[in-house]
Amino acid sequence: MGKNFICDERTVVTTAKGKLRGFYYNGIYTFHGIRYAKAKRFQAPQPVAAWEGVKDAISYGYICPILDQPRPAGEVATPHRFWPANENCQYLNIWTGSLEQSAKKPVMVWLHGGGFASGSSIEQESYDGHNLAAYGDVVLVSVNHRLNVFGHLDMSSFGPQYANSVNAGIADLVAALQWVKENIAAFGGNPDNVTIFGQSGGGSKVTALGQTAAADGLFHKAVIMSGVLSDAFMFSNADHREFALKVMEQLGIEDQDPEKLEHAPAQHLIEAVNAVSAALAAEGKILNWGPQPNDWYMGDPLKVGFAESFKKIPTMVGTVLGEFNMEAPIFGKETMTDEEKHARIEAKFGENTDEVIRRFKVAYPHTDEIYVLNYDTLFRPDTVAYIKKKAAEGTAPVYSYMFSNVFDYMGGKVAWHCSDIAFWFHNAGSLPVCQMDDGVTERLEAQMSMSLVNFARTGNPNTAGLPWWTPCNKEHMYTMQLDKQCEERADFEDELLPYMLEVTPAFHFDPSMFKDEEEEGSAWVY
Question: What pTM was estimated for this model as a whole?
Answer without folding.
Answer: 0.95
